[in-house]
Amino acid sequence: MKGSTSRFKVILLFVLTAVLVLAGCSSSASKEEKKDKDGKETIRFATWDNEDTLNLQQKMVDDFNAQNDKIKVVLEGYGADYDTKIAAGMGAKDAPDVMYMWNYPLYKDALEPLDSYIENEGEEYKNNFYDALWNYNKTDDKMLGLPVGYTTHVVYYNKALFDEKGLEYPQAGWTWNDLQEAAKKLTDKSKKITGFAFSGQPDPYDFEMYLWSNGASFVDKDGNLDGNVNSAKSIEVFNMFQGMLKDGIAITTEGSGSTEMKSGNVAMFVNGAWSLGSLTEAGIDYGVVELPKFENGQNVSIVSSSGISMSKDSKHKEAAFEFMQYWTGEEANKARIEFELPVLKSLVESEQLTQDPVKSVFYSMLEKSDGYTPTSYIVEDWTTVADDLSLVFEQIFNPSTLMDPKKVLNEVVK
Amino acid sequence: MKTSKTYKFIVYIFLGLFSLYFLFPFIWVILTALKTETEVFAFPPKIFPDIPQFHNFVDAWTSQPFGVYFKNSVIVTVLTTIGQVASCSLIAYGFARFDFKYKNLLFILLLSTMMIPWDVTMIPLYMQFNIFGWINTLKPLIVPAFFGSAYFIFLLRQFLMNVPKDLEDAARIDGANEFQIFYKIFLPIMKAPLILIAVLNILVVWNDYLGPLIYLQDQSKYTMALGLAAFRGVHDMQILPIMSITLVMIIPPILVFALAQKYIVEGISGSIK
Amino acid sequence: MIKKTRPQKYNLVNKKVPYLFILPWMIGFVVFTLGPLVFSLIMSLFDWPVTSSPTFVGFGNYIKMFTDDPQFYKSISITFKFALVFVPLNLIIALVLALLITQSVKGIKIFRTIFYLPTVVSGVAISIIWGWIFNSEYGILNYLFSFIGIEGPKWLIDPKWAIITIVIASAWGVGTMMLIFYTDIKSIPRDIYEAAAIDGAGPLRQFFYITIPSITPTILFNVITSVIGALQQLTLVLLLTGGGPLKSTYFYGLFVYNNAFKHHKLGYASANAWFMFIVILLLTLLIFKSSSAWVFYENEVKKEGGKK
Questions:
Q1: CB–CB of B228/B244 below 8 Å?
Q2: Beta-ladder partners of A288
Q3: Where would one find the signal peptide in this protein (chain A) (predicted)?
Q4: pLDDT at B51
Q5: B103-112 and C17-28 helices cross at what angle (nearest 10)?
Q6: Could you tell me which of B154, B159, B156, B146 has the C-alpha nearest to residue B110?
Q7: C54 reaches B (C-beta below 8 A)
Q8: Domain segments of chain B as ranges
């Protein structure tokens, strides 16, 4: 017995030495890393863009590095798992200095407020961005990001299918009744063609725009669901969408609907600017048009905005902001124009984007959408609320349940 | 054993049915990789591309520095495989062929390391690697392999437990020490299971995506799996590059498997069980 | 280091030797595993929103989990139902496949590779393909069904079918288990079979009286690892269904993952993870206890009353 305990001590000693050796050889490495060869300040910059635009971003970063003799930016691209990576970095206090951001309420505590930085740049600087976008880049009255891009949501329609039935293309100012009528005419069961498609599990963040369009919302100013998400105006919206399914003029999709749209068998669906490029690549001849209105309503879109933020823990804040300015400046907006809708009024004007048949639609939707605050910015625990809402939406829209909106919405507010 | 014709027939029917299930999605990957975007999404589904788009592979490979990624992946895979085979054979031998104090407790401890989901240990592990200064290097992906993994140790132990006891007893009588017994007698016997864990490790590490995602930062350190994931964006994904890179990525582990098959069979047939 | 004269008697193994063999693992455990493990256990007593500092809540997370989170129980029940189907099914398929690829028929090497192939294909690409195959309206499978006049189920939309879809898609990657069985079956000496054949035992008898008993150690391995795998299943649901439809595939692994990375409740997720850890540990111990009745190790045959 005695022998075995002393052996354990030997082993323990082993382990401790191993730990020390490992820690020793490593700490020397960590100190080397922070300093760049040229003594430049190194800024880590994380983006969620996928390969499509990553090369462009890399080029823009390289340009910045070439112009700048004090700062060196390293681009880190994480694609679809951006959030996991960023959360891990924040949890371990090793977040990138500058990062792409849209879900400010969720990350606000780890981000540096930018108000003073923005003030230093003056009113003119601030006013050149669309107001609606500033609203999406702040929480609790603190600016947490600079706008980089945005998209509003629009209706994509398949021109070929409209032509086939001899229908006029939809025009701005149309109503949901118009859409349903068109969908009815376009639907052709024998050819498996459907008039309209929408997600069977819509993201509540996106779906709120339909409620806004009908004068409702998920919550009031104080964050109460009851009396809002289950109000008559709100239920009307859900009934209308469910009705389209029941009438067989629309289908629900497993994703956003872009896969189905690309098959060429869906005549209309709603999405942000993300589908512009990929639908073209898939060989679909499409057009875009503003969202339809409800009777007596105004069509409103959610703004899916993207900005860049600074980590609260960054050790290079001044340098980081300098780079952020570059990234949101006119030149950079212009460089991204193929992939991202510019957020600077001056550039939109000089590029005459409001004349562009496709892009203008997104800008006019943006102007109509100022002044609406998504519920995620109002309630404390949006991700949980969104989960609950999302399940209810599914119960309403899933073909195997198709539950009564009034009933389930009344239940969820409890 | 004589195999009758009906027996063979039944075997082929089963082989055929399972092949259908295993091959169908895979063949669809191949066919998709050779299509144009329009053909990919067409409905009714288009089985064969009109003109096979072989340039999809070139486009995908050149869109990112895949040569660098490939090199990184090879480094990580080769080193971890060496590490796992070396460490796991020792450790599993220790657990399987000796009786010692706290053995069962330690073994349960070993198994329990497989049971904690990574979501909750990831951040503390990140912090730890950060203290070591290993973030944005390949070390977090490689070094732990030299200390064994519970899965492979357990697997190897099961094989070693199944070797008759008299083997090392005889050697001990001849005066061999424990490491000689391990090295001279057991290593040759373990050839097949060691090749098995090498094959499995290559498979796991080659396709590992979460480790590289969390610990690596700049592109020059990325692995193939991470490069592949970069085609998947938040709102959209690039189907063609995903399919073609996936196919390219299959080649090394499948080649290894094809080669290893032979040894898995050979390694045992001569030895005592 | 301690130098002693090596014991001359062969039956006396130096007591430190076994520890030297397992030393690498012990070092690795202390350096790479212990810290994060303890950290996550401590974090389960905190409210930790990732983006800001943790606050101590005692057993609050555990209490909330057991009393105030219906999804916790739902996810557990879905996960166990899945495991109950998945584990036996996969074991059987793996074993059948392993037997098939040990047959000496023409072209067997190619079949071996075919069966192993799916495990090599990256999860991302294959989840996309499964998504297309099972797409209800414009999917490949339902399109094929339409030729024989069947209206295919709404695979990923109907909750009843979604879980079946997951089972079908996850059984696809059974190759690892198959390969383990295969390696073990290959190591059974041929002469045992030959002797049995001379005694007139058919293939079925040989299978039950020779093959199965010989590979019980790897069966134990595959049972335990696939139980762990099934109870922690995450990748496939994350990529293919996201937990839907109607949370019918909201497995426990996804529950923990979402709590951690979607809701940023890392303390709560740690509590979730530790609960599942205990459950899996108990299950594993139970399986191990039972294994003395059905697992036969060659090195224990001669020992009397060999315990394990």
A1: no
A2: A156
A3: 1-31
A4: 92
A5: 20
A6: B154
A7: no
A8: 1-53, 64-269
Find the residue in C nearest to B248 (Cα): C121
Inform me whether the C-beta atom of residue A248 falls under 8 Å from chain C C-beta atoms. Answer: no
A23 pLDDT more than 60: no
A79 touches chain B (CB under 8 A): yes
Tell me if A214 sits within 8 A of A300, measured CB to CB. Answer: no
Quick one: what percent of chain C has pLDDT higher than 70? 93
The DSSP-derived string for C135-146 is: -TTT-HHHHHHH
A194: which strand partners?
A266
CB burial string C14-31: b at 16+ within 10 A, e below: eebbbbbbbbbbbbbbbb
- Which residue, among A51, A75, A148, would best test binding to B if mutated, counting the most B CBs under 10 Å from its CB? A51
Across the interface, of A110, A201, A263, the residue whose CB is closest to C244 is: A201
Contacts of B265 in chain C (CB under 8 A): 186
First to last CA, chain A: 63
- In chain A, whose CA is at the least distance from the CA of B124? A92
Q: Which domain holds residue C288?
A: 62-123+169-300
Contacts of A190 (CB under 8 A, 6+ apart): none
The full set of domain ranges for chain A reads 41-150+305-355, 154-302+380-412
How buried is residue A303: exposed, middle or buried, by Cβ count under 10 Å (0-12/13-18/19+)? buried
Q: Which of A264, A240, A243, A266 is nearest to A253 (CA)?
A: A266
**Residue A18: pLDDT band by 50, 70, 90 thresholds?**
low
Contacts of C53 (CB under 8 A, 6+ apart): none
Return the exposure string of B88-111: e unless at least 16 CB atoms fall within 10 Å of the residue's CB, then b: bbbbbbbbbbbebbeeeebbebbb
Question: H-helix or E-strand containing A125?
Answer: helix A123-127
Supply the CATH number for residue C248's domain: 1.10.3720.10
Question: Complex ipTM, two decimals?
Answer: 0.90
How far apart are the CA of C280 and the nearest CA of chain B, in angstroms? 7
To the nearest 10 degrees (0 to 180), the angle between helices B191-207 and C108-120 is: 40
Using DSSP's 3-state secondary structure scheme, residue A186 falls into helix
Using DSSP's 3-state secondary structure scheme, residue A149 falls into: strand
pLDDT digits (tens, 9 = 90+) for A242-270: 999 999 999 999 888 898 999 999 999 99
Residues in chain B within 8 Å Cβ distance of A272: 235
Q: Is B229 within 8 Å of A79 when comparing Cβ atoms?
A: yes
Q: Name which of B219, B225, B187 is nearest B206 in CA terms.
A: B225
Q: Which of residues 204-233 of C touch B (CB under 8 A)?
A: 214, 217-218, 220-221, 224-225, 228, 232
Q: Tally the domains of chain C.
A: 1
Q: Which CATH architecture has domain B64-269?
A: Orthogonal Bundle (1.10)
Write out the CATH class of domain A41-150+305-355.
alpha beta
Q: Which CATH superfamily is domain A154-302+380-412 in?
A: Periplasmic binding protein-like II (3.40.190.10)
Q: Name chain A contacts of B241, Cβ cutoff 8 Å.
A: 51
**Is residue A234 within a helix (H) or strand (E), and if so which, with residue range?**
helix A232-246
Distance CA(C120)–CA(C225), nearest Å, equals 19
Measured CA to CA, the distance from residue B29 to residue C259 in angstroms comes to 33
- In Å, what is the CA distance from C198 to each residue of C193, C202, C205? 9, 10, 13
The reply to whether omega before C70 is within 30° of 0 (cis) is no
For residue B18, give the H/E element and its range: helix B5-33
Shortest distance, CA C31 to any CA of chain B (angstroms): 9
